[in-house]
Design goal:
Elements (H helix, E strand, L loop, with lengths): L2 E5 L5 E4 L14 E2 L13 E10 L2 E10 L2 H51 L10 H31 L1
Helix pairs in contact: 1-2
């Protein structure tokens, strides 16, 4: 808050938090606190409200105007934006890192195992989680098993015919 003005019922300034201020800042139209429903509170520079007091049974009213310290609000807002920007970047980097680990373990590693099996036909990879990769693994294993069987049959046939 930059300044608070309290006005009497005749709209004369009777108190200001700035002791040197003796005139009103009526350049700004203060928005009543009862009308804050659907506005951006950061667009407004001044807010007002009425206070009812009693002297015995007789009511009297004071009007209060609260002026916002715009530099403080801008600094606070930029600090919040910076903080949440850092949180977002940390979350984003963590998300990308976890996604990379998941893709590596569920896609890249199984594909590399299938490539090794297709080239060297030595170690059959364990059952894969992704259905399409599992069908490729099964087909390769079945094909290599059939090739081994045919190779053994050919060797046995050649040995018998000699």
């Amino acid at each position: 808050i930059k300044d608070i003005h309290i006005l009497n019922s005749d709209n004369k300034l009777i108190y200001s938090t700035d002791r040197l201020k003796t005139d009103l800042l009526n350049k700004d139209i203060c928005l009543s606190l009862t009308k804050i429903n659907n506005i951006d509170v950061f667009d407004q520079r001044c807010y007002s409200f009425d206070v009812r007091l009693y002297s015995g049974l007789n009511p009297y009213y004071y009007h209060s105007e609260v002026y916002i310290n715009e530099q403080y609000l801008e600094a606070l807002l930029s600090q919040k934006i910076e903080r949440y920007g850092i949180y977002f970047m940390i979350f984003f980097i963590t998300f990308i890192f976890l996604l990379w680990i998941i893709l590596k373990n569920m896609l890249v590693k199984p594909l590399e195992e299938l490539r090794q099996f297709a080239y060297y036909s030595t170690k059959i990879p364990k059952k894969l989680f992704i259905r399409e990769l599992e069908s490729i693994r099964y087909s390769l294993a079945f094909t290599f098993k059939r090739l081994k069987k045919n190779k053994m049959n050919c060797i046995n046939y050649l040995l018998k015919t000699r």
